[in-house]
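Below is one such protein, fold included:
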Amino acid sequence: MADTPGPERDAVRGLAATLGNRSNELAARGRAGEVRGLWEDAIAGLEDEVARERIAVAYAWYQALHGEDEHGVRLAAGLRESPVPSVRAQVRVLIRNRWRVQPALVERVWCEEAGSGLPGWSRLADEEVDVVAAWITAPSWEESRAHYDERIAGLRAETVEAALEDVGLADERLRNQAAVYRSVLALGAEAGYRCLRGPRESAQEAGAAIARRDWDALGECGRIEAAHGLSFLSWVHGVAARLMVTDVPAVTPRMAEQAAARARTSQAWERQQAAVDLAAIGDASIGGLLALVG
């Protein structure tokens, strides 16, 4: 589910600010017991699901920062699977913020609500998230690679993965970029950065993955090809990679429609490369695909 667009998001922020101010006034008058009802009535009165989720996480923050740590953490844990990415991002920040102050309380409440221990992202340092954000927003591939060598390579893979997810959740403009760098990590720096250099290079790396029969790598190459604008070739590589690891592979009518639509806007060399690569796979399971691009 997409986040609330600009004007609506501003309205939601305004409502959250109003509720916060009203809560402070109630507390100052000795009527703190009315705060929960104020927020919960406001949330229940919202028809838009995204707005409800965003006010709910604002409520969690208010409680956590105004002496109701356990309730705030419980509210946040209840939003851990929110369909709104920015809400899940705020849940992560809130849980980390409170875990640094009251680790035992946060772990207990999270376990009660989620039925499992705290996830790895709960222990991410702000500096780790900042380093990863700087990495994926470097102005050139060369600077990105230098940043990788200097700052990213020394981090645990789990840390980088969690931080990439954080960055993508918090900023929808960086969501696709985070996904591309996730593929770079999966391929390894050398192969990943070769793919990043350009569409031809990424296609070449996909061919190498086929020669190795490495279908996971082929799928990751496809994701980077998509970022280069190779809509057709990236689709073929992604579908072929999935078909090769599926128990009962099949080319569906829907796949045929997608292939035809993408082929119409593709470059000639993409179509030629797709035919060459599918022939190189040489498996009966992708025969239907080969017929579509041949």
Summary: Residues 6-28 form the longest helix (23 residues). The radius of gyration is 24 Å. The mean pLDDT is 92. The CA atoms of residues 145 and 236 lie 28 Å apart.
